[in-house]
Design brief:
eight-stranded mixed β-sheet; five-stranded antiparallel β-sheet; binds S-adenosyl-L-homocysteine; 14 helices; Rossmann fold; alpha/beta
Length: about 350
């Protein structure tokens, strides 16, 4: 049994079954035993691999996007280059390498990371030493901001509800004997659920999007949000847990498995404007990367390597963009303050 499981069992014994948002927050963020608090989970030897860890091209193309938005903002002498949940800092390092080739852009960028994990903060500090760290979005500085996030929203906790025989239940974590088990309790809050099926409540994610929308509206700028999920809200259980690249039960080894769920981009598209920002568009990751020049950049890079390395480089680009791999399931949403035109490739016809 993991140390966190002992703690969670005690909490359930004392307070009753636990909503999923509480469970997820503990599993990922418990100060001592939370998944992200204790480890660097990325890559082949870890639990899962993210786009910036697959290929440098991902971050480089985002760097080109950032440079373009910075110019559209009037090339301000200082701007906040913000990343939410930066993992190892790889994406930001790749973005900064591109900015260093654009006159004055790298000098203007002040890097701000929103990150809760001490272990990952350390990893980020090695790759991007000149950064400022924040625990929450609330403390970001009031200046023009370009915000990027990859696989951040999927890690923010959700709740699940389900209608059965006319009654709405909340899906919770309880105890059967001594074992953690998923179960149902009558919903403590009213949920307008018509269909039968699992409804995922994204209140915490929506609150983060509203806060970012408010920040962009006040300070000016744009955000580029990558995650896996669906463009339209739909019923369905998408909660998943993963250890060593394999799915496991959500109740398995709390604190040692990554727990996430698909992002409901329609819910985010409602929340950002509530904060005062505009949705510039939503695209499949593959379409975005292709429009930003994935093929050309892969080609240029592959000229400088040979053999196996070249094969890997080409395969990595394909993994990021092919619809059967990450190209379709992963989406990217662009959000801007009111004065900005949708930055390319959003809004391009
Ligand atoms: N963007 C990185 C990492 C994605 S994993 C990549 O693509 O490789 C999720 C990241 O979000 C981790 O850095 C994790 O520590 C961070 N994180 C998770 N929940 C968070 C929260 N509530 N506040 C801030 N950061 C969080």
């Amino acid at each position: 049994m993991t140390p966190l499981e002992t703690i969670i069992r005690g909490m359930i014994r004392a307070d009753g079954p636990m909503p999923l948002d509480r469970y997820m927050a503990l599993c990922l963020g418990h100060p001592e035993h939370g998944y992200y608090m204790t480890r660097d989970p990325f890559g082949a030897g870890g639990d899962f691999t993210t786009a910036p860890e697959i290929s440098q091209v991902f971050g480089e193309l985002i760097g080109v996007w950032v440079a373009q938005v910075w110019q559209a903002l009037g090339s301000p002498r200082h701007f906040a280059l913000v990343e939410l949940g930066p993992g190892r800092g790889t994406l930001m390092a790749d973005v900064l390498r591109v900015l260093s080739r654009v006159k004055d852009a790298a000098k203007a960028a002040e890097v701000h990371f929103v990150e809760t994990s001490p272990v990952l903060r350390e990893a980020q500090g090695i790759r991007v030493p000149q950064s400022t760290w924040h625990h929450t979005i609330a403390s970001l500085p009031a200046r023009p901001s370009i915000i990027i996030a990859n696989e951040f929203f999927d890690a923010l906790p959700i709740r699940q509800f389900e209608r059965k025989n006319g009654t709405v239940f909340e899906r919770v974590i309880g105890l059967t004997g001594d074992m953690l088990e998923r179960g149902l309790v009558p919903s403590p809050v009213p949920v307008p659920l018509r269909g039968e099926g699992v409804f995922e409540d994204h209140a915490i994610r929506a609150a983060a999007a509203r806060q970012l929308g408010d920040h962009l509206a006040r300070s000016g700028g744009a955000a580029l949000i990558f995650d896996y999920g669906h463009a339209r809200s739909a019923l369905g259980d998408t909660l998943q847990a993963m250890i060593a690249h394999k799915y496991c039960r959500v109740t398995e080894r709390p604190g040692e498995a990554d727990i996430t769920s698909h992002v409901d981009f329609e819910a985010l598209a409602r929340a950002f404007p509530e904060g005062g920002a505009r949705i510039a568009g939503l695209m499949a990751q593959g379409d975005f990367l292709n429009a930003m020049g994935l093929e050309a950049r892969t080609e240029v890079l592959s000229r400088s390597v040979e053999g196996e390395a070249r094969t890997q480089l080409v395969a990595a680009s394909e993994r990021l963009a092919h619809p059967a791999q990450m190209g379709h399931l992963f989406k990217v949403m662009a959000v801007t303050s009111a004065g900005l035109q949708p930055p390319y490739p959003f809004g391009a016809t």
